[in-house]
Amino acid sequence: MRRLRDLFQALAQLPRLAFLAVGLFVLLGVLAPWLAPYDPNAQDLLATHADPSWQHWLGTDHLGRDTLSRLIVSARTSLVGMSLVLLIALSVGITIGTVAGYRRGWVEEVLMRIVDVGLAMPSLIVALAVIGIFGTGYWNMILALALAWWPGSARISRAVAVGVMNRPHIESLRVLGASPGRIYFHHLLPSTIGAVLVYATADAGAVALSIATLSFLGLGIQPPTPEWGQMLVDALPYLESAPWQVILPGLVLTLVVIGFNLLGESIALNRVPTPLPRRILLKRRAMAADWRKAAP
Predict the structure, then answer these.
(1) Residue 10: inside a domain, yes or no?
(2) Hey, which of 2, 25, 228, 264 has its CA 20 to 30 A from 258?
(3) Cis peptide before 37, with omega less than 30 degrees from 0?
(4) Where is the chain membrane-spanning (predicted)?
(5) From the CB of residue 206, how many other CB atoms can be counted at a distance below 10 Å?
(6) Which CATH number is 276's domain given?
(7) What is the pLDDT of residues 77-86, one digit of tens each?
(8) Overall number of domains in the chain
(9) Does residue 76 sit within a domain?
């Protein structure tokens, strides 16, 4: 019984640990140029595959580059790329979703059928198709992932916008003669953005994983720019002689994805009303009974 209680207590700490993992990732991404002990692209061919030491805490890769510095700068690369993808995808998705929820009728039907087509295709397949058309490169990767991610935010935005438009205060604004632009920009859009950003937190981990996947395939961020997926593919030929060069970027990427997923789930669950615990419920019932007895 004690072990079960300890397990539940450990699970209760997961959202906090996820927040710490995401916070550390963001901190490393912002302060990477000042936290990295070495230039991530500086080569030392006389110290290739060096073991972890006081000089190089996590060793060096096949070109003698400091692994710790490349891991830290890779966090900045992933953070910037993930932020750009989500910014573009959310801007397009929220605009289309709110317009569909506001106008309704044939406008909603046309826009939502386009969204359905986007949702029917796997995001990675869409990204690969766009990169196949426009070619590899950093900005082409950002464009490809943004085009793959906007339909999900559009669907959520439309659902939230329909709920907002059915609220009594929106009807009151219409009766009072508020202009469509005022209703859209001052009431509908802010309410929709707040709700969609909550769900976008969970998508951040998937976007970071997609960036690493495309870089691993040679279709995303190109060398010598440090990136976790690029570090993985560079270290694969040396898996037996220097396994930590594969384990470290994979482990960091896994922790970031899990952290974002747990953080997004905890934020979403906090917005859902939960029943009171039995102990508190019984206590409130007893207080209500005592109050009724004391009432004249």
Answers:
(1) no
(2) 2
(3) no
(4) 16-36, 79-102, 114-135, 196-222, 242-263
(5) 19
(6) 1.10.3720.10
(7) 999 999 999 9
(8) 1
(9) yes
